[in-house]
Amino acid sequence: QVQLVESGGGLVQAGDSLRVSCAASGRTFGGHVIAWFRQAPGKEREFVAGISRDGASTYYTVSVKGRFTISRDNARNTAYLQMSSLKPEDTAVYYCAARPSTDIRTTTQQYNYWGQGTQVTVSS
Fold this sequence. Notes:
Elements: E1 4-7, E2 10-13, E3 18-24, E4 33-39, E5 46-51, E6 58-60, E7 68-73, E8 78-83, E9 92-99, E10 113-114, E11 118-123
Parallel strand pairs: 2-11
Antiparallel strand pairs: 1-3, 3-8, 4-5, 4-9, 5-6, 7-8, 9-10, 9-11
């Protein structure tokens, strides 16, 4: 079992940066792939970024590549999503998710554990 708690969301202006965090409970954090998803009002939840268990591999959706950076600190049981050059279309609830496997996947059904989400709002 892994419990995930996101934090760090807020209201920012276009072009600003923001870092959201995902704190995990349990001693098996390092055995899970971690991903960030987001869900805007009226839209489906979509994959944003994923990171392998050891942090050596990352994967991003096209719309955030070059602007967002996913990272993790297994000693602190925490994952991060650093967001830069934010745009109004990045506005969404951001969710952290975990799957006990070796490969990064991009669909919600492939993740076993979810946090409650943190709201990120980017004003123009």
